[in-house]
Amino acid sequence: MAKIKSELGTLKTLGLDNAQNILEVTYEDKKGETRPCYSLNGSGMRMMLNSESTIVRFKTENRPIWSCRK
């Protein structure tokens, strides 16, 4: 989550619009507590993967994108 927060901070500092690619949302855990989470669309996922290693990008290409939303 720290990496996503950093990415959002950088975009804000540069005056760039996130265009709803990465949304801060919440979910309810097994104990019924509300926790922070991020929902990424395809563009948001690619934004985050661009900074990852080649093997990570390869393994995640064309895979379903997990969302914390139900």
Describe the overall structure.
- With 70 residues, the protein is α+β, with helices and mostly antiparallel strands.
- The protein has one domain (2-60).
- Helices cover 39% and strands 20% of the residues.
- It contains 3 helices and 2 strands, in the order H-E-E-H-H.
- The chain has a two-stranded antiparallel ribbon.
- The longest helix has 12 residues, at 2-13.
- It is globular.
- The mean pLDDT is 83.
Beta-sheet strand percentage?
Answer: 15-25%
Indicate the percent of residues in helices.
Answer: 25-40%
Q: Structural class, from secondary structure content?
A: alpha+beta
- The succession of helices and strands, N to C, reads HEEHH
Euclidean distance between termini CA atoms: 19 Å
Helical stretch count? 3
Shape: globular
Low-pLDDT parts are none
What is the total domain count?
A: 1
Tell me the total number of β-strands: 2
What's the overall average pLDDT, rounded?
83
Radius of gyration: 13 Å
Please summarize the sheet with the most strands: 2 strands, antiparallel
Describe the strand arrangement of the main beta sheet, using strand numbers: 1-2
